[in-house]
Design a protein that fits this description.
The chain is mostly beta strands. The chain folds into two domains: about 1-35; about 50-374, Outer membrane phospholipase (ompla), Chain C, CATH 2.40.230. It is built from three helices and 17 strands. It has helices at about 5-30, 150, 310-315; strands at about 50-65, 70, 80, 80-95, 100-110, 120, 125, 135-145, 160-175, 185-195, 200-215, 240, 245-255, 265-275, 300-310, 325-335, 360-374. The strands form three sheets. A twelve-stranded antiparallel beta barrel has the order 1-4-5-8-9-10-11-13-14-15-16-17. Strands 2-3 form a two-stranded antiparallel ribbon. Strands 6-7 form a two-stranded antiparallel sheet. The longest helix has 30 residues, at about 5-30. It is globular.
Length: about 375
């Protein structure tokens, strides 16, 4: 065998062995190195409130009403309306078990619904002539729901258009600086049935127990019109507590998604609340007889059946800014305001001597406003 050929074979064998040795050493060294793992981004915690919506509104109501406050025109007719400026703040949030809604509004009336010391337009508590500023009212409410689907970790309460069933609780408060010095406090509790509407809309229906446990009426205070008989013809301090009764509240919202894309800036919404009779509206059961002199309370309907909203910010700046600025017009209807019978309740809803209606216990007006979200 040729010596050169032998040398070549030996070199190749040694080269392969060296390569194998280097590979083995490399694998061993690699095995001793820590494995580089790509870091995983932490999952961010969900906020406690995954919806948090806050808005302020200014609106103007040309024909508002305040029960018992009116003026007499030169021709003998009665003017029972007053213009109101309304400033409102609303908050809505959603969390893992339900929703919360809070609203507070300030209503500033014109001179036809005066503040103290006037008892009527242009008339002071002494009976003399005097001009008083329009009264200021504050009204606040909250409603909280606790969804059955969330509480019981199920979807059993989502069937067809039914989206959920919830427990609902809430409270209302109202006060005014007129002569009546109203100080309403009430609580509600019951169920809410939430239904889906087309175009991501909804309608909620809530049968409730309603208890107006505190109210005040300066007109019924003993000593104002003579000594009176406490509990019969007057209230010792003007304070009243009514009987619990039933209530039903409805609210809805729907985008007008059937419009052409170039016009999809409009939506409709509304609400209505019915509140059952709660006893004598003045807290004087002896006055709750039949006829036009009765002061028995009646079913109260407080509603805004329709509101048409134009999403001005979406139209101006695009979908990203939807509902940052809304312009709207609505119709408001409130019959048997505060439970007063609009066809009776002398001295408030009617003129005691003649039975003529004061037109102050039914509010019917178109009004408009601007709402801004922040």
């Amino acid at each position: 065998m040729d010596a050169a050929f032998v040398v070549l074979v030996v070199k190749r064998i040694l080269g392969v062995a060296a390569a194998v040795s280097i590979a083995a050493v490399s694998q061993a060294v690699a095995a001793e190195q820590p494995v580089k793992v790509k870091p995983v981004k932490p999952v961010p915690d969900l906020p406690f409130f995954f919806v948090n919506d806050n808005r302020v509104t200014f609106s103007w109501m040309p024909k508002g009403a305040d029960a018992g406050f009116f003026s007499v025109n030169p021709d003998g007719s009665i003017n029972g309306t007053n213009a109101k400026q309304v400033y409102s703040f609303t908050h809505f949030d959603a969390w893992v078990y339900g929703t919360n809604f809070f609203s507070i509004s300030m209503y500033k009336s014109d001179h036809n619904a005066p503040a103290v010391p006037c008892v009527a337009s242009g008339i002071t508590v002494t009976g003399g002539a005097g001009g008083c500023a329009g009264n200021t009212e504050f009204y606040g409410l909250f409603r909280s729901t606790f969804g059955w689907n969330q509480l019981f970790n199920t979807q059993a309460f989502t069937v067809g258009p039914l989206h959920n069933i919830s427990f609902e609780v809430g409270m209302d408060a109202f006060t005014s600086n007129n002569f009546v010095a109203a100080a309403t406090r009430d609580v509600v509790a019951g169920l809410q049935f939430a239904f889906d509407l087309p175009y991501k809309g909804y309608i909620n229906v809530a049968p409730l127990l309603y208890w107006e446990f505190a109210e005040h009426s300066g007109f019924t205070q003993c000593g104002l019109f003579g000594p009176g008989v406490a509990g019969i013809t007057c209230n010792p301090d003007g304070n009243i507590s009514y009987k619990p009764t039933w209530a039903a509240e409805i609210n809805y919202y729907m985008d007008l998604g059937f419009l052409p894309p170039s016009m999809q800036y409009f939506s409709i919404s509304g609400r209505a609340g019915w509140y059952g009779p709660k006893g004598d509206s003045l807290g004087l059961p002896a006055s709750s007889g039949p006829g036009r002199f009765s002061t028995a309370s009646k079913i109260e309907l407080n509603s805004e059946p329709i509101r048409l909203t134009f999403d001005a910010s979406k139209a101006a700046w695009g979908e990203k800014y939807s509902h940052f600025v809304d312009l709207w017009v609505a119709y408001r209807y409130w019959q048997n305001r505060l439970g007063f019978d609009h066809n009776a309740t002398p001295g408030i809803c009617t003129i005691a001597a003649t039975g003529q209606n004061t037109n102050t216990c039914t509010e019917s007006t178109v009004y408009a406003g601007i709402t801004m979200k922040f």
